Amino acid sequence: MANDARHVVVLGIDGLRPDLVTESTMPHLAALASDGTWNRRHTTVFPSETRGALTALATGATAQVNGIAGNQFYIRGTSPDQVFTETTHDWWAADERLAGNLVKAPSISEVLHQAGRPFAVVTSSGPGALPALNWKGQQRGQTGFNVRHPQIGYPHSFAARAHRSLKIPAGGISADGPMTAFRVFEREVWPYDKPAATILWCTEVDSVSHLHGLQSSQLRENMRACDDVIGELRAWRDAQPERDSITLFIVSDHGHVTIGGTVNVADALCQAGFKAAASFNDHATQVLVRPGRAVGLWLKHDDPALLRDIRDFMMEQVWFGGAFSPASEPGSISGTVDGSLALELLGAGGERAPGLFVHLGKTPADDQSDQAGHLDSVFYDPGDNDLRIGGGTHGGLHRGEFTAVLAGYGAGLAQGRVSDAPSSITDIAPTILSLLGIDAPKTMTGRVLGGDALESEKLAYAEILSAGAHKTTFLTGIERQGHFHVSEGGIQ
């Protein structure tokens, strides 16, 4: 197909599960996907958490390459504390501590800047989303704004103008965030800069999923509000003189599952006799624990015997749902810890990887927490987060949280095409650059989506199993063009 793309706009809906998108819940998105492209096997990265996923989107690479493994992680030899990404201060403090090397791979922001093409990001998300999507964009003179946290914006002249024009309160927008973010783009970004690429990121679907659950009326209301923005975005494109050179993508960064049971893994380890904590500030601590759906474990000192003991304890717990560790040797599917699979299969290896990632499993079918109204009930370690049973969560490898939305419409894209070929959030940046005629850096491990995914192509389904322990960790996925695309993980 002809490619006349000169401008790409990505609208991100944080936490949107693709299987919840229907003609009744999100009619504008359903229509756009029907008229354009819809990827039915689109996934995120591991851990399936927002700031790690947004960094993967921006860099076109997994944590193994870009260094951002989820919302929080530990980096050996730098500090006794974990790295957090919740606020802009967290990002800058970590970057100072790492001598400017927090994000280890160039992003689409940098590539477009080097090509002399403008780039913009407008969010209605938490303060950590903007640096994830446009790390150090302010130094490059690019455009960034957060309507929920309007003190975060650049350049100052643009931010002041947007603040006045949209009448955004100094304390930020608490309602209508997605539409306000779109209006900032429509009125204050596009007329002035006409960016080559723009990312609009909205957090509201994710927030209500966490608070109210996946079958709540609040979730449906926020899905419809985001769908209204999709309708406005498409109408805006159709009204532009440049419409035939504008490409739209609608994406999400992960899905959601339901919290059916909670566990404090650090406390459980301590009760079993291990010295575990959230940091190494106490010199007696043996193992640092990162909470979540994918619990990361870093040892203070290399101790294979201790790690095996921890593995044995974990495997006996009802909440154990799989084990992953750095590859035993390059290219191996097995992790260094017996009974685990290699983190490299998930793009989560590298120097910042923990000694062991323990994936938390599904709640038992006969558990009282697996009650009516709970969609895909799982265990979760909330850490310091105030998330409760019945609410939504993500971070692991359950299909409900690991799959994500990818729909496209406009210049350079097919019409009326549904693709069953696997795709990843890391494919978005190289695809945008390809549409714009700009070479992607070699660090972008994602592939360019397009005509290579033929409908007649036969896809080889595969399963990878661990060995060496009485509980078997599995990954299922698709073998395609020499690469294993993960669809789901857990224990047998």
UniProtKB/TrEMBL annotation:
Signal sequence, renumbered to the chain: none
InterPro entries reported for this sequence: Alkaline_phosphatase_core_sf, Phosphodiest/P_Trfase
Pfam families attached to this UniProt entry: Phosphodiest
GO molecular function per UniProt: hydrolase activity
PANTHER family: BIS(5'-ADENOSYL)-TRIPHOSPHATASE, ECTONUCLEOTIDE PYROPHOSPHATASE/PHOSPHODIESTERASE
Protein name (record): Phosphodiesterase
Organism (species): Rhizobium leguminosarum
